[in-house]
């Protein structure tokens, strides 16, 4: 059951305590974890610039979309939700456009619980994702920076949720990708909570509190292990590309809707 945004219990003194005290799921266990960062999207307009930046342009995977920066046509907050919107080419935007929000150079974390409650698009050729990259990516480059895919989804496989980790194997001198067991969501038009619990030993992946994958992170010596270093968060809606396939522009716009983002850590990890 999702935490309510409007708990009226007398213990809910502040917004931060509200999320920690009123949440009924395992991620908000107040005796172990503390809420350290969140966006509840309880405002209207562009995403909060103190919390989010943008990837821009054509970024990866031969995807079709051009990621715009601070364009309300592609990323907008209203009615308690962030909407990331992919749009077909038109007169004022002759490209396929979408948005990719990121906390790079704003905030990052090592270990903790990251949860995002979201509703996924169903239109053909969509590729929404919630994921992290190592904050040292500009220094060591990908995949040495590491990657944690909290949720990846392509609409060519409706209802199938993927989770993965990517890193560089220095012994074999190659990229390694550890794919999780795919899991399914039952209702395509519903919100689900996608989450990880990241400790110094492992990363566990959840959909609505149900674990479907675990990755043991000691696969690289600790000094170079990207899963013992800070990561930043990305939420994006890609179109087409190497995995998603060709879109059907007649069904556009397509929307990836996010209800909230919450990050918890144990005090010793902060």
UniProtKB/TrEMBL annotation:
One GO MF term attached to the UniProt entry: hydrolase activity
Cell inner membrane recorded as keyword: no
Stored Gene3D superfamilies: 2.60.120.200
Key words, A-Z: Hydrolase, Signal
Signal peptide: 1-28
Stored InterPro entries: Beta-glucanase-like, ConA-like_dom_sf, Glycosyl_Hydrlase_16
UniProt domain GH16: residue ranges: 26-269
Family recorded in the similarity comment: Belongs to the glycosyl hydrolase 16 family.
Stored PANTHER family: GLYCOSIDE HYDROLASE FAMILY 16 PROTEIN (PTHR10963:SF55), GLYCOSYL HYDROLASE-RELATED (PTHR10963)
Full protein name: Glycoside hydrolase family 16 protein
Phylogenetic classification of the source organism: Bacteria, Pseudomonadati, Pseudomonadota, Gammaproteobacteria, Vibrionales
